[in-house]
Design goal:
Number of strands of chain B: 1
Low-confidence stretches of chain B: 1-16
Structural class of chain B: mainly alpha
Number of helices of chain B: 11
Oligomer: heterodimer
Mean pLDDT of chain A: 82
Distance between the termini of chain A: 77 Å
Low-confidence stretches of chain A: 19-24, 38-48, 255-259
Strand order of the largest sheet of chain A: 5-6-7-3-8-9
Mean pLDDT of chain B: 86
Largest sheet of chain B: none
Shape of chain B: globular
Helix content of chain B: 55-70%
Order of helices and strands of chain B: EHHHHHHHHHHH
Distance between the termini of chain B: 34 Å
Strand content of chain B: under 5%
Helix content of chain A: 25-40%
Order of helices and strands of chain A: EHHHEEHEEHHHEHEHEEHEEEEEEHEEEE
Number of helices of chain A: 11
Strand content of chain A: 25-35%
Number of strands of chain A: 19
Structural class of chain A: alpha/beta
């Protein structure tokens, strides 16, 4: 028996943008474009620009028991790669071999139906994820207990709160027992306690000798969970190796990129129906800044585009310091409530008064989600520097090696006898 | 009617791991790989999708599964009033209500199944773009879930036969055959349309007209004997003509359908069905990118 779990050999995927842009096309559109391309032949051919390689010549082997983290900016090819390995779409050339039973989790709650009860959805979703009926029966009680929605198990899930919905969906997925587990960024939603529970469950999968392939924008969970990290850039492998080294390298690369402002006027992927269009870091007076002093108020202004109205939008921010440690994660659902998103552009602002940040460079990630899926993530949306200041008001500068500062009040309780 | 919870088989011990299955993922270009084995391995998913369809269909309706009875019954009443009482359409000597109901039974099933199959892939876009399973399961679930409604309205037919004192002949044993033919027709045409629908949403608009037009091309409201002799052969190439005549023959003991013509239309149907399977399999590679 070989130790090989996944073999990827010169895998490439080409998309025709013309085809994709015309997704909901009607026959008429095709006739029209047929005519226009007939006339275009006389002039210059635009064919080359219509094609785009989402993945190009990707090769690597994964051994049994490895936990591989896949990182990279939006549009680097991570999702395409997972879709190919999950057999949802075919590669254009090259091949991949998967040795063993595979389960892939590109979204939580796929196939959930609002009219059906929690109990019914467990069976349906389990079957969709590839569980056998007997297997679901055996694990049913465990799934319900894990989801913490026992009381509502016979209620239609359309009456569930978004948290309950996500928990139930996770619970089913967490009880898959494949030899190879493929997970897309599904942990970005759901509350913290539950995320921890799921990460723990995934950690168990990896520790019992099974193979995990995990895509995430959260560098913290990547370094915690994975034994090896692959960095994708423009559809190609740019680095492959030790998690800490690759993550450091990746975060470091951001420095040459965007500073102070992020802007994306068209969807990063033609099929995307919601995306983060602008991220600004402002000071108290409303000016764009990329450098602050410790304790100075910050305002994060996020704009996002929706192609449909949705009343379940949430925006999550995550601040990572240059060591790759996630130190704060303001979240609109926890601190504001669900955002009613309009079709078109929406803008929200998150103000942080006196953040206790030490002298370091910080990377801001922005996540956009609705209640059961992550719609867009921007890594390194903004990178900023915090400089030392008299944060405590005592004339003493704080230690820059700390992760966060603590503004505390001190009091002496006994008598000063000196 | 309450749809039963999934049957709970006794838990069995996990089978010992056999040889490790190896899946090879690459660009496929074959014409004739239908993946029937893969389909068989996913039969439980088919069962759950059918179960979901049936369960959801009537979940928020007040009358629930009674709609499966009401739809053909209301059509029968309307047809009886318009075509029998007003237009005095001949019905081969049978009371018009049961004459038309025996045809409405397969027709309602067929038109419902065709519509469901056509919109099945686009309607399950979420599944198609997020999970792997043999895509053929989706249209299959579309034809199978209609059988539940068919079974329910069949009860009405039995009641009507008792009321009109119609003795079934031995021909009734051939009924499943005609039902299979109706299923195959819906699937054969539906597979083409379902695949086309992912690319051209026009198909969704064409369907209501196609179904309406097709009904007039079938002996639902009139008898085959009303069709001029010289057009009869061409007319019978429509596979649903054979199905509906077959139903009337099996249930009411009407004149039996022309079996040699039916054989020809069945062969055409087989070609259509096989072509549909191949076309669907060819197109399914792009489903996830198109829906």
């Amino acid at each position: 028996m070989s130790d090989l779990a996944i073999k990827v050999d010169h895998l490439s995927k080409q998309y025709q943008i013309g085809l994709k842009a015309a997704q909901h096309d009607t026959l008429r559109d095709h006739l029209v474009s047929g005519f226009s391309s007939m006339f275009r032949k006389n002039g210059k051919s635009g064919e080359r620009q219509d094609q785009f390689w989402a993945l190009k010549d990707v090769s690597f082997d994964v051994n049994r028991g490895e936990a591989i983290g896949l990182i990279g900016r939006n549009g680097a090819g991570k999702s395409t790669f997972l879709k190919i390995l999950s057999r949802i779409t075919e590669p254009t050339s090259g091949f991949a071999e998967i040795h063993g039973r595979v389960a892939s989790l590109l979204e939580v709650g796929t196939g959930f139906h609002g009219e059906l009860t929690g109990r019914e959805n467990i069976y349906l979703n389990g079957a969709i994820l590839g569980m056998k009926h007997a297997e679901i029966n055996r694990k049913f009680d465990e799934i319900v207990a894990f989801s913490e929605v026992e009381k509502f198990i016979d209620t239609p899930v359309k009456r569930y709160s978004s948290g309950m919905y996500v928990r139930l969906a996770f619970a089913v997925a967490a009880h898959l027992e494949p030899e190879i587990l493929i997970v897309d960024e599904v942990l970005a939603v759901g509350d913290y306690e539950f995320q921890k529970k799921c990460l723990g469950k995934m950690d168990n999968v990896a520790k019992t000798g099974r193979t995990v392939l995990y895509v995430s924008h959260s560098m913290e969970s990547i370094t915690r969970l994975c034994t090896r990290v692959i960095l994708l850039e423009n559809g190609q492998i740019s680095r492959d190796g030790d998690p800490n080294e690759v993550v450091q390298d990746y975060l470091g690369r951001g420095l040459t990129g965007t500073v102070g402002l992020y802007s994306q006027t068209v969807p990063p992927n033609p099929k995307q129906d919601a995306w983060i269009s602008r991220v600004e870091l402002l000071d108290d007076a409303g000016a764009n800044r990329e450098s602050f002093v410790t304790g100075e108020p910050m305002r994060f202004r996020i704009s996002f585009e929706l192609t449909y109205p949705s009343s379940y939008v949430e925006v999550g921010l995550a601040l990572t310091n240059q060591k790759g440690i996630e130190i704060a994660a303001p979240n609109s659902r926890q601190q504001y409530g669900l955002i009613r998103g309009n079709k078109g552009t929406n803008t929200v602002e998150c103000r942080w008064d006196g953040p206790p940040l030490t002298t370091k460079r910080y990377h801001l990630r922005v996540d956009l989600g609705d209640y059961h899926r992550n719609m867009d993530s921007v890594e390194n949306a903004v990178i900023f520097q915090v400089e030392a200041a008299d944060y405590f008001g005592t004339g003493k500068l704080p230690n820059p090696n700390l992760a966060v500062l603590s503004k505390c009040s001190w009091q002496r309780l006994d008598e000063d006898r000196a | 009617m309450a749809i039963a919870e999934p049957r709970i088989p006794r838990a069995e011990p996990e089978p010992l791991p056999e040889a490790i299955p190896v899946i090879r993922i690459e660009h496929t270009s074959g014409w004739l790989k239908l993946g029937l084995r893969d389909l068989w391995e996913h039969r439980e998913l088919l069962y759950f999708l059918v179960w979901r369809d049936v369960k959801v269909r009537y979940k928020q309706t007040v009358l629930g599964a009674a709609w499966a009875i009401l739809q053909p019954v209301m059509s029968m009443v309307i047809f009886t009033v318009i075509f029998s009482i007003i237009a005095k359409m001949p019905s081969d000597g049978f009371p018009y209500p049961i004459f038309s109901f025996a045809a409405l039974l397969p027709w309602t099933y067929f038109s419902g199944a065709l519509g469901r199959v056509t919109s099945s892939v686009v309607g399950n876009a979420q599944l198609v773009s997020k999970v792997y399973f043999p895509r053929l399961i989706i249209p299959l679930a579309g034809v199978v879930s209609g059988l539940v409604d068919f079974a329910i309205s069949f009860v009405v037919l039995i009641a009507m036969m008792i009321y009109y004192r119609i003795q079934p002949t031995w021909a009734i044993v051939t009924l499943p055959l005609f039902l299979i033919l109706a299923t195959a027709t819906a699937l054969g045409i539906g597979l083409w349309l379902a695949a086309l629908n992912t690319r051209y949403r026009d198909v969704g608009y064409i369907i209501p007209f196609l179904i309406q037009f097709w009904m007039y091309a079938c002996p639902v409201i009139y008898a085959v004997s009303a069709v001029p002799e010289r057009w009869r052969l061409l007319y019978s190439l429509n596979p649903m003509v054979g199905v509906i005549e077959g139903f009337r023959w099996a249930l009411l003991g009407n004149a039996h359908p022309n079996f040699s013509v039916m054989a020809v239309s069945s062969i055409i149907l087989l070609v259509l069905l096989f072509g549909g399977l191949v076309y669907f399999k060819r197109m399914e590679r792009t489903f996830a990118d198109l829906v």
